[in-house]
Structures are given as C-alpha cells and as structure tokens.
Amino acid sequence: MKSRTIIRWILRLLLGICFVWAAASKFQDPLAFAAAVASYEVISGIWARGVVLVLPWLELWVGIGLMIPGLKRGSAWVVWFLLLGFIGLHLSAWWRGLNIECGCFGAMGMLSGYGMLFARNSLLLLGATILIFLEIIRHREQKAGGSH
Q1: Which domain holds residue 29?
Q2: Which three-class secondary structure string do you get for the chain?
Q3: Angle between helices 3-28 and 45-65 (to 10 degrees)
Q4: Is residue 109's pLDDT more than 60?
Q5: Would the pLDDT of 103 be above 80?
Q6: How many domains does one find in the chain?
Q7: Can you tell me the distance from the alpha carbon of 87 to that of 1, in angstroms, rounded to the nearest whole number?
Q8: CB distance 9 to 67 below 8 Å
C-alpha cells in the first residue's frame, strides 16, 4: 500500500471519528448544545433551533461519509467548510470577548481557552486540506491511468 493511501485512510478515519463523536455528544445533550449555540450570540430563534436540529445530523453523515467510497470526497469538502466556519465562529466570539462553551464535543470535549480551540480546529482543518489534496491527486492519477 502506498504511503499516500495510508495517509488518506488515517485522515479519513480520524476526521470521521471526530465528526461522529461531535454529533453523538450533541445528540446526547441537545439542551447543552442549544445553550452553546446561543452563547455565540450570532443567531437566535428559529435559526438557532435549526442549527441545533441540523448540525448534529450533518456531522454524523459527513463523519460516516468519509468512510464510504462514493461519498468520501464530498464529505471531506463539507468537513473542510464546517471547520472553516467553526474557526470563524471562535474568532468572532474571541474578538467580541465572549466567554463561550464550545459545544463541539459535549462535556468530554471541553478545552480551556480559545488557543486550544483554534489549535484543535486548525489541525483538523489541516488534516481535511491534506485529505482533499490527496484525493484530488488520486483522482487525477486514476483519470490519467485510465486514458492510456
């Protein structure tokens, strides 16, 4: 097995586990997740309830989708955009001086301070970026190999 294949599998597995775990923690305690969404002071009312209802399912499906051949590339892109959005939300909360509960992984995922949140999400974003890059390379190699 080529090293790129191993790296792709490891990244898909790690990112998939993170997103399934995040979804499971939100399903386990939806009230805590709703409070976390409210603490960002970005959306409220029906929009906040929509995030509380939809985001855990989205995280679950992209986490699983990373392991399904026909869904892995699209799931990697959704993960990438979600992580970019999460980083943006954390930066916004930090900039506005809010004391937030992340809401990312429930009680087990509590991190102390914005620095740890940025570090974790930046590492996950880097992993998703590398995964997407490796998937693009693999796809191009398959196309080039198939055209001969």
Answers
A1: 3-146
A2: CCHHHHHHHHHHHHHHHHHHHHHHHHHHCHHHHHHHHHHCCCCCHHHHHHHHHHHHHHHHHHHHHCCCCCCHHHHHHHHHHHHHHHHHHHHHHHHCCCCCCCCCCHHHHCCCCHHHHHHHHHHHHHHHHHHHHHHHHHHHHHHHHHCC
A3: 140
A4: no
A5: no
A6: 1
A7: 34
A8: no
